[in-house]
Amino acid sequence: MDSGKNLQNVVVMRHGDRIDNFEPLWAEKADRPWDPPLVLDGKIRAFCTGKKLNNNLGFPIHRVFVSPFLRCIQTASEAIHALCAVGDSATWMSSADGVSIDPSKIKASVEYGLCEMLNKQAIRAENAPKDGNFAFNISECEAGLPEGTVDSSSVERVYKELPKWGESTEGARDRYKNIIKTLADKYPTENLLLVTHGEGVGVSVTAHAPEHLTVYEVEYCAYSTLQRTLKQNESGTAGDFKLIGHNGILFTSTSPEVDEVVKEPEPPKSSS
């Protein structure tokens, strides 16, 4: 918890720079063209964002949940290395620099509910698996996270499997909103970091800002910070999350009348 103040914080973060946006021909030869890894700059950005979170948030991260997509697993790994680093060397730019960590600081888990939107808006149809099977292996995903941080024994995933290919954009946005609240409710005494995709970060803003907002871009490793008060009463209920900070998320304010017509914000550019 946040210094005993009965506050819970959730940080929702996008993955780093993915290879297929820098090497257009990568997907043509890839065995899993729907699941690109990070480029080196993406790993560096993820590690440096983890350092920024560690230095600037003002509260510790206790638990990390991550989408099963490789770019998110690699992003989470770099961020966890930064958050759990023993010492603070200015020369460290990624986990490849020999960063020593204390894995007891954070527990990490893979959560299907944080996955990419499984539709043609987010994944090019020619890159999606023809049979609709994205073939994620949880053990292999967990192996990509720092040793000693994986909490596979006590955590029960909220979403037991991926959504079906062709889910609606509205359905995906509802999923992101639901998973943020559900994970927070499961671990009310802990601050969470959720590593997901651009659309999920966008939803974390539009669903929790006090005014009507339209998100039009979510940069690599952009993140929002949500906070709520845990009410001390017989029901043990919590207040609603409020957006208290953001980095790398571009949006505009819209009137309620416009929102009634649009219904949902436009997806962030390069939301996958």
Automatic annotation (TrEMBL):
Q: Name one Pfam family in it.
A: His_Phos_1
Q: Which domain of life is it from?
A: Eukaryota
Q: What is this protein called?
A: Histidine phosphatase superfamily, clade-1
- Species name: Helianthus annuus
